[in-house]
Fold this protein.
Amino acid sequence: MAKATKRTSTCVAGRGLGGTIKRDFQKNKVKYLIVALPVLFYILFYYVPLYGALISFQDYSPRMGMLGSPWVGFKHFIDFFKSDNFGRIIKNTFVLSGLDILISFPLPIIFAILLNEVKNTAFKRTIQTVSYMPHFISLVIACSLIKNFCAYDGLINGFIAKLGFEPYSILQDPASFKWVYVISNVWQEMGWNSILFIAALGGINEELYEAAALDGAGRLRQTWHVTLPGIIPTIMIMLIMRVGQVLTVGQEKILLLYNPATYKTADVISTYIYRKGLQDFDWSYSSAVGLFNSVVNFVFLIAANQISKKTTETSLW
Amino acid sequence: MKKSFKRVCCAALALSMALAAMTGCSKKQNSAEVDVTAAKYGTTYPLDANGDSLDLWIINSVHPNYSSYADMPFYQEVEKKTGVKLNIKGPTGGQFEESFNLMIASGELPDIILYDWADKKVAGGPSKYIKEGYILPLNDIIDAYAPNLKKCLAEDPEIDKDVKTDDGLYYVFPYFNSEQPAPYAGPVVREDWLEYCGLEAPETVDDWYNMLKAFRDKKGATSPLIWTDWLFEFTGFLSGAYGTQQAYYLNEEGKVEYGPATMKWKDYLTTVSKWYAEGLIDKDIATLDSATSDSKIVGGKTGAFIGTGGSIGTYKPMLAEVDPNAKLLAVQEPVLNRGETPEFGICDNRYSGLMSSAITADCDNVELAAKFLDFFYSEEGRMLANFGIEGVTYNMVDGYPKLSDMVVNSEDIQNTMDEYSNSEFSIVDPRYYEQRMIYPEQKYAIGLWGKTNAAAHKLPVLLPTQEESDELTKYTTDIETYVEEMYIKFMIGTESLDNYDAYLAHLDELGMQKALEIYNTVYDRYKNR
């Protein structure tokens, strides 16, 4: 649509912006209609509620409303930065999220590439279906499975004991928490996340492989020089989006899996917001923390996008 | 850690907050001036309501056997007896906290809200809600329209002191017990295991230690002792032997004290960490949910647990299926020296500040709302709220309301009674609870668990002012998180008890002393009511 506007605006440059829009609207009536609904949706459900973030600068009370509640400036932000757990939850958030990006992000890509090499269609389809099955297990059930496996007398400790090590209550051990979190993430989401990459792989021109084979490239070389460059744009877009969510970790999963013994490594920004906002009803405070969360995510998103633009010429905008 | 998992719909919350912000300011700010002179509904029940109706929000979910409140026999009977048409709303799936907050945030208030008004989850307390114009102060309203409640309060000065704010404002039609409620939880052991090991019912901490060791070695119990958090916190199991509890309570000098901030707590931790290290306590204690602990108890991996009178009734038939010889025995809270009376144990206030009905500032028919609520303090209303419908759920036998066979023979007495009654509108009648316990073990348990000095330590319902409440939340959330965390770490041994002094020092950094100061101020104010 942007292109359409540009074209019309050049040929009717003399008549001003209003005229331009009018002409363009008449010309592309149907397109405007089609786009109107999504735009409305975004305005209503994404932009209008944004002003609610203002309550983080207030001592908000629903009864007094936003106009009646007293303004307190940056009080809640300062309270948060000075709070006892600030350093810890920021660190935990970055560690969990960073590990997740480092491990759960590349695995679906490798999985997709390996699957792409399989020539037996029936086998390939079966593996693919089975691999994204865990994604459909309700999180509550998935977490009780994890709890069961990690119990003192559970499956994993069974192996540990067989190997001659001392069994321990895995979910009570702060050092183990990040691995439980990341490995279970891989189990749950690897298959599902690989779908997009498998689709991207299907789009690579077969002739490129034939040409590479003629030049004497083996399987590995073909993967390196044809497959990977073919899906790099998809990978980069997904990575930028993931980095933009760096402070957003699986809050519900952590809430289900953590306990006081693992707060040290498992308490993250979103669980902190949950405890403050919905258990203490400190709405303004948790909005402040939430706003801080969004701002940091936003900064990371921009940074990742810029870096990607410079290095791989792929970017969101 | 009774923080059960609650699904949070942040988007909905944000949106409703935004909506509330738009509508909030248009509401009347303070409706304290209520015209109490006009009376048009008469004074006898059913009221002459002429089809006028009331909107209620109640904390109880719809009974699973019914699709709506209106279908439940209790509310049908209430409508008939009071003559008032009811539109009832409530939480779905037991998520009453979220549901309540969304309602408050939406700005659309019903006429009556039955909620835990004096609980700490209502931040700022009833005074704040009166000041900000959510609910009405009830003094004039009770004088004018609620003769039954007025009479009950006049006859019971102890309750009368507890159910108002420090400024003397009534804020709810209170739900309270007509006498000191029976304790409902305490330690339970496998009696057949005791016999097998040749042991008596344990009395002292040493008895407990020997018993758990015997269970571990002779019965092969993998988790000899097990508990779920909230019961444990409430009963003060074991910590009571050292004169403390994981709570705010009154110490020997009549001052408010927080157990985990005392040296007594260290004595308790020393014992409990020893038990944990020797495998006498379930290894996964911090991650246990009730389903897992149930399966361990029924599966014979556990010989002692903190249970309720109700859970004895639940486990008894389940255990009988697995092991016909299994027997459960309630025992007293452990003490240090033989012959001592336990200092702590479960103990409820007669008025807990929970589940009471407030009339909202948006109610445009205060007279009807007050008269409707006052019905439940009349003789007829109290019987209906406690025992349900005469001839269906109970029969009067020599002046005693005896539960009918239909109720007593049902699979779950409480569940059946929930269809026909709801004492939360009224005053709890102990004659119901004594009939609910059907097994002799349960009756024995309730009697035994009550023999403690817990009442001397129990704080009444305290109402901090808004400023105090704001400050308290600032300290206590961090304090409680830290205490929970360190408690588990000390117990499972990931933190050495040598660091206990550093732990206490950090508690003070988190504002422990300031929090205690506030608690003591609020308690002093209560005493001077």
Summary: Chain A touches chain B through 49 residues (CB under 8 Å). Chain A has two domains: 2-43, 84-312.
